[in-house]
Amino acid sequence: MVYERRIHERKVPMRDGQILGYVHSTESFGAVDGPGIRFVVFMQGCNMRCQFCHNPDTWKKNVGTEMTTAEVLNKALPYRQFWGTDGGITLSGGEILLQIDFAIELFTKCKQLGIGTCLDTCGQPFTRRQPWFSKFEQLMKVTDILLVDIKHINSDEHRKLTGYRNENILDMCKYLSDIGKPVWIRHVLIPARTDFDNYLAQLGDYIKTLKNVQKVEVLPYHTMGVHKYHEMGIKYSLEGIEPPTPERVKNAEKLLHVEDYRGYLTNTTTTSRA
Ligand code: SF4
Q1: Is residue 273 a part of any domain in this protein?
Q2: Distance from the CA of 47 to the center of ligand 1, in angstroms?
Q3: 48 CB within 6 A, ligand 1
Q4: Assigned domain for 271 exists
Q5: Which phi-psi region, left, alpha or beta, contains residue 236 (left: φ > 0; alpha: ψ -120 to 50)?
Q6: How confident is the model at residue 67 (pLDDT cuts 50, 70, 90)?
Q7: Is any atom of ligand 1 closer than 6 Å to the C-beta of 55?
Q8: Which CATH number is 99's domain given?
Q9: Hey, what's the signal peptide range on this chain (predicted)?
């Protein structure tokens, strides 16, 4: 039976004494969703509306498959033999931080079982206001590593691109740096939106200020999700924009100093510059 209990004054859906999550889909053998091979859980719901989002079907909240944390674990555990020492479970989205209570409960169980935990987030829900911030602190105690997408370094441009400003997202990055939590930073390179040398250089400089970055990745914009917009009857804002050329991807990698972040290979944080 589904009922709700209040956790820190917010209603959280429950079943059989466990927190329920709204799951969009799962991937059994994720190879690009954190270190090693990972079972990836894509959660439903996102506040942002990134123009380039290739998963608009994850936007709607409180829909999808309702699963308890035990049900997710039971689905993931048969793949444990493939995870090795680096892999584990990644919670992604949508935006996983919108279901932070579910993430805390699932990752707490993972750590009790010795399973590696990775959070793939855009950071939009981050706030230092209580009670949310205490929950985030609790979640970080059971999270090994985060993949953080920085959509745009300029807050006005970030708002145009996603619908939200980025100050709190950069504040989350600073907090993660302060507590020494390992992160991989990812940035989608989009012609006419993010592919400008001045913004890329600013982002490169910003990342240099962080002390916890193990890896920086440039993700070239692609158009593979456009059909979903057509099927869902949503206007696609980047119509006519092509993926960046290999030269521009190389240029972005240079401006973001991608080569300098190799900590993930040795599991140590690298911040030095040649
Ligand atoms: S944050 Fe992620 S899921 Fe949300 S709109 Fe942007 S790309 Fe899509």
Answers
A1: no
A2: 8
A3: yes
A4: no
A5: beta
A6: very high
A7: yes
A8: 3.20.20.70
A9: none
